[in-house]
Amino acid sequence: MSEREKGSRQEIGAATRRSVLGDAHVDRANAARTGFDTRFQTMITEGAWGTVWSDETLTKRERSLITIALLAALGHKDELALHIRATANTGATAEDIREALMHVAIYGGVPAANTAIRIAKETLAQMEKPAPD
C-alpha cells in the first residue's frame, strides 16, 4: 500500500470511527495515545475503520450487529458495551440487539449470551437516561 493510500485509509477510517463511536469516544481514545500504542491505533484506524467498516457491501447497522454478536460470543464486555452505545449512530435497535444475542445463545453459547444480555440491558438503560444539564 502506498503512502497516499495509507493516508487515505487513515482519513477514511478516522471519519468512519467518529461516525460510529462518536466524537467524544474518539477524542478520549486519541488523548490517551502514547508512543507504546500509536502504531496499534493507526493499524485499527486503517484496518478496522478504514477498510472493514468503510466498505459499502454491508450497512453500518449490519456491521454493528455482527460486531455485537462477535464481541458477545468472545466475552469482550467493555467493547460490547461500547458497540451497544454506538447503535445510536448505526441505526441498530434494541430489538436488533436482542435478536443478535439470541443468535449468540445458539451459536456461541448460553452463558456468553446471558452475560451479553445483562450488559445490553444495563447499557440500553443508561442510554435512555436524559443527559445531565
Structure described in brief:
This protein has 133 residues and is mainly α. It has seven helices and no strands. Helices cover 79% and strands 0% of the residues.
Model description:
InterPro entries: 4CMD/NDH-1_regulator, AhpD-like, CMD-like, Decarb_PcaC. It comes from Roseibium aggregatum. Its EC number is 4.1.1.44. This is 4-carboxymuconolactone decarboxylase. Pfam families: CMD (PF02627). The protein is an all-alpha fold and 133 residues long. It folds into 2 domains: 1-56, no CATH class; 58-133, AhpD-like. It is 79% helix and 0% strand. The protein contains 7 helices and no strands. It has helices spanning 3-21, 23-31, 38-52, 60-74, 77-90, 94-107, 110-128. Helix 4 crosses helix 6, helix 5 crosses helix 7 and helix 6 (94-107) packs antiparallel against helix 7 (110-128). The longest helix has 19 residues, at 3-21. The termini are far apart.
